[in-house]
Amino acid sequence: MSTVHIIGSGLAGSEAAWQAAEAGRDVVIHEMRPVKKTEAHHTDKCAELVCSNSFRSDDATNNAVGLLHEEMRRCGSLILREGDKHKVPAGSALAVDREGFSQGVTEALSSHPRIKFVREEIAYLPPAEWGEVIIATGPLTSSALSDSILKVTGEAYLAFFDAIAPIALKESIDMNVAWFQSRYDKGEGADYINCPMTQEQYYAFIDALIAGEKTEFKEWEKTTPYFEGCLPIEVMAMRGKETLAYGPMKPVGLTNPHSNTPHYVVVQLRQDNKLGTLFNMVGFQTKLKYGEQQRIFRSIPGLENAEFVRLGGLHRNTFINSPKLLSPDLRLKAAPHMRFAGQITGVEGYVESAAIGLLAGRFAAGNTALPPVTTALGALLGHITQGAESKSFQPMNVNFGLFPPLPGKVRKDSRAQNMSARALGDLSGWLGDKSLSVA
Fold first, then answer.
1. Could you check whether the bond before residue 407 is cis, i.e. omega within 30 degrees of 0?
2. Which of 282, 347, 351, 374 is 20 to 30 Å apart from 400, CA to CA?
3. Quick one: DSSP state of residue 6?
4. 257-276 pLDDT, tens per residue?
5. H helices of 95-230, where?
């Protein structure tokens, strides 16, 4: 059987490589880092997490992304194995130590007897002579490869901007003002650092966000939209003074042990590494200039002396019009020896990107049966390849709205549980009751 060539070693490429190799295929991963760097990555390791360290909810019963986690675990996902291994406290979410997670994925792939790495930039779409190819170059596809994709597809790219949140040293946060607690004491009950703000402080903060100096777009970037699921905090602030109070800064389910004065909003920070030395500011992705970030964010009670090990930023993402260009098994219709996987297909989120990589790897290895549309894997795949309207296609997170309705009348408060139960039952049938775990 021919070798499977995978271009890109992000979450999707790494998962695709693992799935194909575990199915018995020889795999070559082509990765341009460190030969050529990207705007957002800092290392040459596989599956480097850029924007956040959270894989979002791990609740497989009530949440679609949590269900996707569980389905991927049962498919022997490397990304979920390493995510579980390098988990850090995050309430009911699955958040990971970035460095440990990336190192774990890199070591697993590098030590696999069927996987080989080639450090080079692929500046063109490979010809049919290469055999099975998976393009998993993600949101930061090189300009040369982008041009090659445009020529083959005849399509213009759709693009959007993602923003990155700052990370602070825990020891620099004033815990005489801040406190540990999860909203409604979920998860371990004390997984987040909370910084309280009065109404007066909050409104002054909103004014500072709006007035702060921002990174300017280049001329060719000015018509590029933001992705709604990852808006810069100052963009949310401009939508109305209370937007953040009902969003990432909502104060519900929290009790300040330091003061009886009610807080109007709360800034939360989530553990970012296993040592518990780094905490990222939840929902605080931003395009403010570095000096402005330090000035404005240090106005938050508890963060007056915060030491930021990483400040926020902005980078451009790219995705293809998958409903028009891809077949149901992720093949490029114009060149069927190639498949696309990950965020470049128009899925949004770390887990969703890895999930499409998982499917692409299985398909390339010869396991070509499509997952049932009643599963999270099948619903996500069906949306990007068949279900979405190509004329208005936009990035999509997994959600229960992508699943087929349940038969008969179902109570709204049990809808998610019933969909999850159906999904896992149908997944077992698709896997032939051979659910996997990766040791």
1. no
2. 282
3. E
4. 999 888 999 999 999 877 88
5. 98-110, 143-153, 199-211
